[in-house]
Design a protein that fits this description.
Chain A is built from 11 helices and 15 strands.
Chain lengths: 328, 328
């Protein structure tokens, strides 16, 4: 089968289209004919050597898939050949920037019928990240003030909608015209342009000086550090990037706050199947069908142009998701 | 009225018994005739100058009270004179190492009838700390493995019982004979003597190498740092002391873990009444009456001997709680 491979770390030009053996499903695997596969920051981190978990090269990237089941393992009970499914394949196995990919049945869910494969591929990894952080870890509640940094990004625009679904008062940061337009389309309560406004002052004005019940840093480093004073007493600070070594966390103690460091690949990294993730995707699919959750795809690339997609993804400026179309 | 005062920071000898004006209740205050008032680490921190929130001297310490309501403010609706109550008075107002103390009605609860004032005074501050950390922040669940460092201490022995009430598999560290005996009396699942055993090896043996779903550091510094590798994937690390500046928190990210920094005085520090705390004490009182929660008092001091109580509290070796008896 055709697959895009990363032979070793380097610039986007290292990405190499190759002919590799089509995989054979293990007992609980689905063999999925890939229709579309989104791009995530983890793709560019793997390619550039910035991914912090151990991996071996060459590897096939691509950790979102929407497609059709074409074969199943002996023990599979939840899906049949022909089913349209979406999933986030394991970060530690061959990915979906290929004609076929294997996915354990417990991490897959039926593709929402109202979405195309292109749209469905935009959901899994980003949605799982947002869901685990906002729902499983911070457990945000109705009426809480929720600040989302990079609110129009791949994880951000789904996090905004999850916060809205819980009844949160949602504040998002963004800077580009496209991103601010997406936040308006999502009817976010407050959008702040971090390039032209003082985010701290804006937050204190919105929250009467209390700060936000939950602050989600989807950017890292300086944004993480500047988020600490924005957290309310007994609030939550979340990151999907990591905790800067030079961040002074003691203000969180005097606020009796919680810090959540979300990594959707943690269970797989520990050698286990993140079986809860199939259930999350099933719930997300129900929200999508009900019209309360909608992914935003800003650009579609053919597999051959994956390097260009990596270039754009690495700028961190794309609105919503970039998706690779593998077949019609 | 008689009150023990801290005129300025210093050794236990600075504690001065003084005659001070009896306070008058504000609109929502209860004037409580203090029968007993426990000691907490915050007392010795305030006295030694190690408390990190801003306070002004002289002050009256003592942030646990069990006693009888003798007068109420105009707007008080939940209590009447004569009621036996227990509470944790605000850290930022005159405390309970005195004949009388004021407490906002929303942070008080009826004293459990099955407890003496001495026993009831051992509960509030430590229980609120354990409850907010284990229930409100980490939200521990049945079947989870829960490690509690200093499990026989003031907060620890209540945390053990809260974890047990949720159905947790509870592991506690301790070292003294008295402390290990208390853990046995509490029927803890596993007790480990950190002076004679390798805690890391013991935890990995108990958890099949996965680590604990929740690790509560009630000690700080090196215990906090050594706790990080003991946290399971998607687990919780809690502290009631603070986050050491030199702790490497990045392993928490690769585990997708949460860090909870509990400070029961945070709401008061932000200038508001921690109204939820009265409700917590009410629930704790119900558990006490039902026999699922029981405070352990290891030593009782008269108010005049508060300096001796500070000396013992500061060693960090006392089992359960030290309580000051103000009147019979």
């Amino acid at each position: 089968m055709k697959a895009m491979t990363i032979p070793q770390t380097g610039e986007p030009s290292v990405l190499t289209l190759a002919d590799v053996e089509q995989p054979t499903p293990g007992d609980h695997d689905l063999l999925i004919e890939v229709h579309a596969a989104a791009l995530n920051p983890v793709d560019t981190k793997l390619r550039s050597g910035k991914f912090r978990a151990p991996v071996t090269f060459p590897l096939i990237p691509g950790f979102d898939v929407s497609g059709r089941v074409v074969a199943i393992g002996n023990q599979v009970t939840r899906f049949r050949p022909g089913d349209a499914v979406f999933a986030s394949p394991s970060l530690f196995k061959p990915g979906a920037h290929a004609e076929y990919v294997l996915v354990h049945e417990d991490i897959a869910a039926r593709k929402p019928e109202s979405l195309s494969h292109i749209e469905a591929a935009a959901v899994p990894l980003a949605l799982l990240t947002a869901w685990e952080l906002l729902y499983d870890m911070a457990d945000i509640q109705g009426g809480q003030t929720v600040l989302i940094h990079a609110a129009a990004g791949g994880v951000g625009h789904l996090a905004v909608q999850l916060a809205q679904a819980r009844g949160g008062i949602v504040i998002g940061t963004a800077s580009s015209e496209d991103s601010l337009a997406l936040l308006e389309e999502l009817r976010i309560d407050h959008a702040t342009n971090y390039k032209t406004e003082d985010v701290h002052d804006r937050i204190m004005s919105i929250t009467d000086g209390r700060g936000c019940d939950a602050v989600f840093d989807l950017v890292g480093a300086e944004v993480f550090k500047s988020s600490i004073p924005l957290v309310a007493t007994r609030g939550h600070l979340g990151t999907i990037v990591g905790i800067p070594a030079d961040a002074d966390l003691n203000p969180l103690f005097l606020k009796s706050a919680s810090l959540h460091a979300e990594f959707m690949g943690a269970t797989a990294m520990a050698g286990r199947i993140p079986t809860h993730q199939g259930g999350i995707l099933k719930q997300a699919a129900a929200m999508i069908e009900a019209g309360t959750l909608k992914p935003h795809v800003s650009k579609i690339f053919p597999l051959e142009d994956l390097a260009a997609a990596h270039e754009l993804q690495a700028t961190g400026t794309a609105t919503g998701k970039l998706v690779v179309q593998i077949r019609e």
